[in-house]
Write a structure and sequence with these properties.
Strand order of the largest sheet: 3-4-2-1-5-6
Catalytic activity: (2R)-3-phosphoglycerate + ATP = (2R)-3-phospho-glyceroyl phosphate + ADP
Bound molecules: 3-phosphoglyceric acid
Number of strands: 15
Subcellular location: Cytoplasm
Structural class: alpha/beta
InterPro entries: Phosphoglycerate_kinase, Phosphoglycerate_kinase_CS, Phosphoglycerate_kinase_N, Phosphoglycerate_kinase_sf
Shape: elongated
Number of helices: 14
Radius of gyration: 23 Å
CATH topology of the largest domain: Rossmann fold
Largest sheet: 6 strands, parallel
Order of helices and strands: EHHEHEHEHHEEHEHEHHEEEEHEHEHEH
Oligomer: single chain
EC number: 2.7.2.3
Enzyme class: transferase
Distance between the termini: 9 Å
Strand content: 15-25%
């Protein structure tokens, strides 16, 4: 694939598709700006070389309509602070005004376009819309790793209208770490998976079994695995229609000689709330009317044991309802245990990134992916369609 370093960007209009789909609170304030900060190296590289930088992203799911709730304006303000430089915000992403604003840019200028998804053409991969975006670019950079599983106009359709399309530094780094962890890893490779639904992680679990040496499944998924084997799990969350799948995962692990672990104890409550009474019990002793909401101390000891000889660690999904103080122990302990391990560690996918930040161990994880769905696609062993849009090296 061609990367930024393969092209001469000075004086050129460089269109950079980023993923600034960041969480906002009810007042429109940015709650977490990691996705913005992670694009700074690409932008600074372009500024230093005197490119004219046109940034574009989606935010939320405005369904093809202009909606001020999903404006990227607050992102432009945050970016200005991070870059210590003026970022001109344009109130649309295509059209005459945008073309004029871009054509009057000076070398080193940065503009951010308004939300691409205010136009239905973005998600429909409409060639006309792709063409309009491409007309703003001499060089097109894809740095939106988090959106690489979406075949949208700005991520995919543009390839028919602009050359070259190159990878930005964020995308390159994501793929490099993924390769280190799961394509050519140092062994043993250990995976920790959490979250509530086996149904949404089945593809990930099945694929990882072929790649790892040990796998630990926590979060509410564990109860589906226990119940499928005939154990009682009190009132814990269970997916009854996934028992066959759960059993065949266990079977497959055996066949492939992958060590398969479930938690050995749980912190239980009577409701998913801050006020509930709690107790910690062994895995086979969850009483009626109680539900497991976190893993317990013995499970954390087991996790540390599993990690002892690990050379590579992959982590996706929380071990419990960590948003509630009483049930954060397992997820935070796992974050700390991974942080303390000298192994190469990669983590990602939605809540995981947030949990790592809350646990305060960001600097001790080798790589935290900026992707949610895109990271999971890679863990499932699927190709990211948008990589096809990138121009191949000769
Ligand atoms: C994400 O946050 O996973 C990406 O930005 C993609 O967003 P989407 O799920 O709305 O397409």
């Amino acid at each position: 694939y061609m990367t930024l370093e393969d092209v001469d960007v000075s004086g050129k209009r460089v269109f950079v598709r980023v993923d600034y789909n960041v969480p906002l609170d009810e007042h429109g304030n940015i709650v977490d700006d990691v996705r913005i900060r992670e694009t700074i190296p690409t932008i600074n590289y372009l500024i230093d070389r005197g490119a004219k930088i046109v940034l574009a992203s989606h935010l939320g799911r405005p369904k093809g309509e202009r909606n001020p709730k999903y404006s990227l304006y607050p992102v432009a303000k945050r970016l200005e602070r991070l870059l210590e430089k003026t970022v001109k915000f344009l109130p649309d992403c295509v059209g005459r005004d945008v073309e004029e604003a871009v054509s009057s840019m000076k070398d080193g200028d940065v503009v951010l376009l308004e939300n691409l998804r205010f136009h239905p053409g973005e998600e429909n991969n409409d060639p006309e819309f792709a063409k309009a975006l491409a007309s703003l670019a001499d060089i097109y950079v894809i740095d939106a790793f988090g959106t690489c599983h979406r075949k949208h106009a700005s991520m995919y359709g543009i390839k028919d209208f602009v050359k070259p399309v190159v990878m930005g530094f964020l995308l390159e780094r994501e793929l490099r770490y993924f390769e280190k962890a799961l394509v050519n890893p140092q062994r043993p490779v250990v995976a920790f998976l959490g979250g509530s639904k086996v149904s949404s992680k089945l593809g990930v679990i099945t694929h990882l079994l072929e790649k790892v040496d040990k796998i630990f499944i926590g979060g509410a998924m564990a109860f589906t695995f226990l119940k499928a084997q005939g154990y009682s799990v009190g009132s814990s969350l269970v997916e009854d229609d996934m028992f066959d799948e759960a059993l065949s995962v266990i079977e497959k692990a055996k066949k492939l000689n992958v060590k398969f672990y479930l938690p050995v104890d749980f912190v239980c409550g009577q409701a998913v709330s801050e006020q509930t009474p709690v107790m910690e019990v062994a895995w086979q002793e969850i009483p009626k009317g109680w539900l497991g909401l976190d893993i317990g101390h013995a499970s954390v000891t087991l996790i540390k044991e599993i990690l002892k000889d690990a050379q590579t660690i992959v982590w996706n999904g929380p071990m419990g309802v960590f948003e509630i103080e009483k049930f954060k122990f397992g997820t935070f302990s796992l974050a700390h245990a991974i942080a303390e391990s000298p192994a190469l560690s990669i983590a990602g996918g939605g809540d995981t990134d947030y949990a790592i930040h809350k646990a305060g161990v960001v600097d001790d994880i080798s790589y935290i992916s900026t992707g949610g769905g895109a990271f999971l696609k890679l863990l499932e062993g699927k190709k990211l369609p948008c990589l096809e849009a990138i121009t191949k090296r000769d």
